[in-house]
């Protein structure tokens, strides 16, 4: 038997335990003096986080002096061991927890006893753990798996299968090797390899979570694997070898478990919120299933739950004071702000099409924006401005597209995305001001929208490594010009656009100009868009084309039978019979 002795400070010739420490030891080992005197050796390790990286020491126990309520342990020769104090302390804690020997504060006794075989296994685990940690830090996840190979035999290896620490590291490596982003559905060999690693990951992390029910790390890692599965399964052209609904449920289950253990996890609140807002809700809305009033109510409820988790992540971060904690959680904070800002922006109902189609048809447009929509836009603006500031010291009033290009890979979401959403918010606020006749606010918000959208487009164009299309930015810019009453600028911005839905926006701008020439040009633009087989807004294209033909007293083709409810409302506003 070996005695494991916890100390505070550097090893000395003796170690003194006071009354409180002795009471805790006696509660677990009433015969601790006999055990200590008959022990075959002793190992001294540093207690606490500060000494976790210091090596443990094998030491000779010369004398035990017990007097009143104190004990003094006198040491002899010592030898530094390869195992770290943190590894010894961790094993002592896990053993004490397993045998219900922790005190009321959750601490293990400062004096503990292991059989020599237990200590040898601990040393073996510590060595494996250090090797695995070095490989993980180097990004060599394959090397981690080779360290424990063959993986199918891990269950029969007690040194690994009964160690939550090793299972966590092994599960983490398997999870990294299971990633299938940008792997096409036809790449069967790579997908099969990823499937095997997913299976191992799940088995190892579930076992690890069972071994340490009061530690959230394995539950968090497993939740992230299921969360990643959902993301991979929803990517176009990639794998479809798992059921999305089942993976969403699994991600929720393990995120909930992790949050039960550690309710203040910024990372897990963010992931749960994003899972709901950006994955589960769109799947419910656009998945192949019936969608009625009951589903709509469910969708509202789960989106509100997602909002709560994201808001909780933000409030937890903003309550932090420790600089290291702030640094470690900054990325999740920025991402939570981005998703939450987008949620409020999307949730703000604005009757934009109804307003402009009413003007085109010569009818009275809406004159009021709901208070809840105004609040949503205010919240969206607040969160997106904080999101930009979370990762940059650059003032929003002094944007430098060239400097922002260098931040594309550093930020959680690219500067282009952040500036585009800020532009969208101010464009929406400009529309709200226009509807309610607040001309000064309209001018202010339209100016800011143009400023942010222009900066987003310039940053995207100047980015050499990640150059992307800017037509979605141009379309939002066109709508902003419409809100400001600049129809000519709106249609000019989109004059070279070919996508069907963007052609529709240009046609609206041309119809609002209300000249024979602009009507003729709108008809030409819509006829081209109607022939586009990839036009995802072809229903609206046909509605607008039918209106122009009706105005010109031309015979028009019947509208598509599968016209959406939104397009039917648009047709009704323009006086088009959908029957």
Oligomer: single chain
End-to-end separation in angstroms reads 89 Å
Quote the beta fraction.
5-15%
Q: What's the helix-strand series?
A: EEHHEEEHEHHHHHHHHHHHHHHHHHHHHH
Rounded to an integer in angstroms, the radius of gyration calculated over CA atoms is 32 Å
Number of helices: 24
Q: Largest sheet at a glance?
A: 6 strands, mixed
Helix content: 55-70%
Q: Would you identify the regions where 5 or more consecutive residues have pLDDT less than 50?
A: none
Number of strands: 6
Average pLDDT, rounded to a whole number, is 91
Helix and strand content put the structural class at alpha+beta
Strand order of the largest sheet: 2-5-4-3-1-6
**Based on CA inertia axes, which overall geometry fits?**
elongated
């Amino acid at each position: 038997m070996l005695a494991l002795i916890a100390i505070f400070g550097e090893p000395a010739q003796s170690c003194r335990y006071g009354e409180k420490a002795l009471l805790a030891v006696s509660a677990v080992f009433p015969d601790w003096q006999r055990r200590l005197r008959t022990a075959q050796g002793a190992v001294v390790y540093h207690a606490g986080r500060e000494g976790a990286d210091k090596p443990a020491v094998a030491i000779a126990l010369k004398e035990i002096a017990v007097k009143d309520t104190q004990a003094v342990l006198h040491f002899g020769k010592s030898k530094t061991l390869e195992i770290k104090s943190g590894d010894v302390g961790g094993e002592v804690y896990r053993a004490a927890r397993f045998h219900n020997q922790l005190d009321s504060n959750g601490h293990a006794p400062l004096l503990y006893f292991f059989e020599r075989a237990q200590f040898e296994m601990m040393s073996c685990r510590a060595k494996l753990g250090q090797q695995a940690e070095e490989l993980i830090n180097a990004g060599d996840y394959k090397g981690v798996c080779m360290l424990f190979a063959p993986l199918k035999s891990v269950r029969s290896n007690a040194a690994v299968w009964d160690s939550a620490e090793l299972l966590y590291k092994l599960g983490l490596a398997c999870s990294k090797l299971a990633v299938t982003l940008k792997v096409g559905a036809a790449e069967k060999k790579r997908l099969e390899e990823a499937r095997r690693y997913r299976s191992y990951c799940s088995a190892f992390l579930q076992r690890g979570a069972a071994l340490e029910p009061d530690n959230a790390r394995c539950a968090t890692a497993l939740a992230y694997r299921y969360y990643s599965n959902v993301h991979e399964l929803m990517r176009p052209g990639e794998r479809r070898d798992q059921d999305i609904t089942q993976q969403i449920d699994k991600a929720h289950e393990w995120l909930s478990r992790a949050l039960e253990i550690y309710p203040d996890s910024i990372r897990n609140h963010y992931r749960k919120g994003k899972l709901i807002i950006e994955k589960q809700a769109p799947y419910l809305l656009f998945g192949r299933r019936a969608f009625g009033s009951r589903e709509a109510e469910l969708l509202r409820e789960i989106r509100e739950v997602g909002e709560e988790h994201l808001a909780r992540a933000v409030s937890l971060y903003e309550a932090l004071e420790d600089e290291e904690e702030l640094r470690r959680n900054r990325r999740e904070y920025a991402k939570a702000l981005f998703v939450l800002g987008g949620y409020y922006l999307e949730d703000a109902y604005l009757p934009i099409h109804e307003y402009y189609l009413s003007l085109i048809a010569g009818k009275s447009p809406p004159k009021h924006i709901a208070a809840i929509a105004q609040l949503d836009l205010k919240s969206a603006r607040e969160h997106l401005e904080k999101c930009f500031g979370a990762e940059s010291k650059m003032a929003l009033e002094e944007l430098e597209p060239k400097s922002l290009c260098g931040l594309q890979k550093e930020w959680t979401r690219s500067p282009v995305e952040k500036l585009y959403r800020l532009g969208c918010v101010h464009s929406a606020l400009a529309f709200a001001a226009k509807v309610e006749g607040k001309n000064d606010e309209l001018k202010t918000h339209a100016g800011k929208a143009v400023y942010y959208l222009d900066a987003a487009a310039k940053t995207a164009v100047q980015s050499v490594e990640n150059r992307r299309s800017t037509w979605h930015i141009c379309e939002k810019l066109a709508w902003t010009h419409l809100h400001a009453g600049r129809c000519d600028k709106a249609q000019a911005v989109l004059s070279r656009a070919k996508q069907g839905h963007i052609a529709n926006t240009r046609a609206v701008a041309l119809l609002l100009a209300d000249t024979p020439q602009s009507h003729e040009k709108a008809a030409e633009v819509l006829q081209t868009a109607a022939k586009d087989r990839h036009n995802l807004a072809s229903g609206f294209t046909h509605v607008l084309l039918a209106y122009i033909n009706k105005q010109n007293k031309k015979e028009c083709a019947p509208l598509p039978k599968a016209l959406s409810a939104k397009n039917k409302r648009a047709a009704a506003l323009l006086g088009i019979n959908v029957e």
